[in-house]
């Protein structure tokens, strides 16, 4: 067994706050339920994660989500610290706390004058998507069901991207449909990232990205966060559950991203506490085993440093203020 403790993880997407409050889990106590808590973050060497507010589809839901988020992150027992600036990453390492980045999954609840967006930025909002797989006043999401809506960004959506990026918020393209994705690509000069999406060439699921999309994200110096949810890893039956999917089902997506883009695009966006994951990644304590598997199968320590955190950190460095 290789000692992987140096591979600290910056996880690009988790739904833990909502899920653990529903499960009435105590985040400070190790649990077998769900995917994330403080002891398991220690075991997996997870230094920080994007803790999503989902869904952010109305102003009421955003207020509810923010209230829950701040109660959770500022509960001293939970051992977390909010990350708002790049130098906060060094502070969490010094303090022994784990970092939490505020994210809205979907922008439906933001007003067209962007007042709430600017206020949310002040509260620490640092990454967000334009739509969570639905149609709103800014964009159209990728639908799980046919027929897919083929509309892209609205006029307000185009303004939204400019306003959010000017504030220093990183645009997340996971959950967008293809026309909306390409509209974002056209107008953005800054890096964009797909926080939690895999490669469609490996698993043919609409939530996974086409090769053209992956190359476009790479061209913008962005990242694609590997998603551990079974349906997006299951090549034989896309969308279906299979707890026996192994590390190779994850490695195949990484291999493909490296092949058509570069190692610099690969990041982690586990989607933990969002949906069911295979036993090999049953929770965030399993990260070191994934790193071992990759080390034994052709990846270098430097590659794993990039995948586990430095690639995504670079995106934040280029997009935050
Ligand atoms: Zn999601």
TrEMBL record:
One GO-annotated biological process of the protein: proteolysis
Pfam family, one: Peptidase_M19
InterPro entries in alphabetical order: Metal_Hydrolase, Pept_M19
MF GO annotations: metallodipeptidase activity
Name of this protein: Membrane dipeptidase
Source organism per UniProt: marine sediment metagenome
């Amino acid at each position: 067994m290789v000692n992987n403790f140096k591979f600290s993880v910056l996880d690009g997407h988790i739904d833990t706050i909502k899920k653990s409050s529903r499960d009435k889990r105590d985040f400070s106590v190790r649990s077998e339920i769900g995917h994330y808590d403080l002891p398991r973050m220690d075991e997996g060497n997870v230094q920080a994660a994007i803790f999503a507010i989902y869904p952010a589809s109305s102003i009421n839901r955003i207020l509810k989500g923010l209230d829950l988020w701040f109660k959770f992150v500022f509960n001293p027992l939970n051992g977390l610290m909010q990350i708002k600036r790049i130098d906060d990453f060094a502070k969490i390492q010094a303090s022994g706390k784990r970092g939490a980045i505020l994210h809205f999954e979907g922008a439906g609840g933001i007003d067209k004058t962007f007042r709430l967006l600017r206020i949310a930025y002040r509260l620490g909002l640092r990454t967000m998507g334009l739509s969570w797989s639905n149609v709103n006043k800014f964009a159209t999401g990728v639908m799980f069901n046919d027929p897919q809506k083929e509309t892209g960004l609205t006029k307000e959506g185009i303004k939204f991207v400019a306003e959010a990026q000017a504030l220093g918020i990183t645009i997340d393209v996971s959950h967008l449909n293809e026309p909306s994705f390409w509209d974002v690509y056209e107008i953005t000069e800054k890096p964009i990232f797909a926080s939690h999406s895999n490669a469609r060439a490996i698993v043919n699921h609409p939530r996974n990205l086409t090769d053209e999309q992956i190359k476009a994200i790479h061209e913008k110096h962005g990242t694609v966060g590997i998603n551990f949810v079974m349906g997006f890893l299951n090549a034989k039956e896309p969308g279906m559950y299979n707890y026996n999917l192994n590390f190779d089902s994850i490695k195949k997506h990484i291999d493909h991203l490296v092949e058509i883009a570069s190692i610099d695009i690969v990041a982690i966006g586990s989607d933990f506490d969002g949906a069911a994951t295979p036993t090999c990644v049953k929770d965030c304590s399993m990260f070191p085993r994934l790193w071992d598997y990759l080390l034994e199968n052709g990846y270098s320590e430097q590659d794993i440093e990039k995948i586990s955190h430095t690639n995504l950190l670079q995106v934040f460095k280029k997009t935050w203020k």
